[in-house]
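Notes from the pairing session

We agreed to fold both candidates in a single pass and log them together. This is the raw record for the first candidate, unedited. Please don't reformat it; downstream parsing expects exactly this layout.

Candidate A
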Amino acid sequence: MIYLQLFLSFVQIGLFSIGGGYAAIPLIQTQAVDIHRWLTMSEFSDLVTIAEMTPGPIAVNSATFVGIRIAGIPGAIIATFGVILPSIFIVSLLAYIYRRYKNAKGLDSVLGCLRPAVVALIASAGVSMFITAVTIDGTLASLSIVALVIFVLAFIALRKTKLSPILIMVVCGILNVLVYIITELI
């Protein structure tokens, strides 16, 4: 039964995550955290971090991670297959349609209508992750000033310098560990 749930959940994610990996993040969160409770919000934030750091698409990495966590290697295979199956069919169909009607004026209008939806999905994922990153229990009432300061410093460093985002992530992790150690000693 768990294999069927994994497969169907990730088929839905693969089917409705138009716009790529970042657009899939809120869908993965809905399935893995909200509906099935396979992960906590904190574990989901870790999942997104791991999925972004490892090579490959975020949705595929996330499916593999959730699948292996819930049902081992078979779960990883089933969840990963579930998330890529819709893409196989949709891309094949779109390639056929595009080749056949690539000069039609209406096609540009359809593609233009999808852009705002993709931006909204990515913004939703960003806001969710931001709230998780700067709060203790996911509510704004438990805002962590230290986490917010680290976030602001990282954001400024990314925007104003040419430092590697990976280096900035490592420094943020080290800062967070140091703050944790200091608060535990006090």
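Candidate B (folded immediately after A)
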Amino acid sequence: MNTQIYQDPMLVMANAQLEKAALQLGLDAGMQALMRTPERKLEVSLPIKMDDGSIQVFSGFRVQHSTARGPSKGGIRYHANVTAEEVQALATLMTWKCSVVGIPFGGGKGGVAVNVKTLSPRELECLTRRYAASIMSIIGSRRDIPAPDVDTDAQIMAWFDDTLTVFHGYADPAVVTGKPLGLGGSLGRDEATGRGLAQCTGFALEKMGIDPTQVTAAVQGYGKVGRFGAEILQNEYGCKIVAVSDISGAWHCPDGLDANDLSEWVRTHGGLLEGYENHNPQAQLITNEQLLTLDVDVLAPCALESQITERNAGDVRASLIVEGANGPTTVEGDEILKQRGVMTIPDILANAGGVTVSYFEWVQGLQFQKWELEEVRKRLFGVMKESFETVWSISQNYKIGMREAAFMVAVDRVASAIQMRGLFP
């Protein structure tokens, strides 16, 4: 009988990088075990009365990986394939992500196993409010601050916020981030992850001595991250976007696709690129797998995890990979890319723009302030630039890849916080 325990690929990658960083930093096995183990895991059942009068029960999760450097912080995803292991992996990555960009949070993550496309608006609101009430005991603006993630948005956060307000009896603008602007959301939050990704791409191209205006880029996953990332790479850096994809397919045009036109199509066609070839006959339909191995300079995997693996890493032709998704590269795929000399800007750095501006929103909420968009963008650029330079310096000094360097920075900061705090009792 096969008794092998399933391990989420993202968690395998995160723990493998933790082990490498700990070895470089001289951390003992006890400290590694402490940083590998989540502080708290909560699983809840969510019974919902559906529109037809029937009852369905969904599974919800919230994991707090670390509070060594501050309250837990992390998004909530609604997806049919959400599992406890995946949420733990994402919470772990959030710890390292917050640490590498130097913001005072630890990692948290939440999720509900559901396909939101099967729910009516009323059912979605009921599910959100039930989930918020069920995990309320471990949530708070100084404990654990949720935010949007896959298939969640500002409206979900508004329902979440309102539910907590009803139970607590007072408004707390810092209890969740990614809220609508009218409820204390921050300007620039919607574009933040994509903007941070574009900025990291620009920093890396500068180090490589490559002019961004001569660069071709492929973006896998034209959602909240990929869409803004593509627009900013094209409009502000002058890159040529030659391929994009989402769950409905992938499109390629060697002469370039207009990111603004693509985004307008998505906004007016149900959030998907489906049918775009009818609007732009030059856009050739290809597969998501083909997009990953196109002859481009920059590849930005912004979809889901485990896209670049041992099966296709040897066929990737991009010289720079900038990870917009969480865990898009497996351990085996990463090793192949490293052996081939492909520079990879890891997810914990490349997509940290979102949590950074979430931090800005949290600060604004705590202080009942409202920052202008240019201030948010300026502050984000400063954080991403400093973080990239720190990781780049470690990479050069230790002769290691950017992923290993980013984890060294992140792990060292968390370990230092734990050592300064000591252990209770």
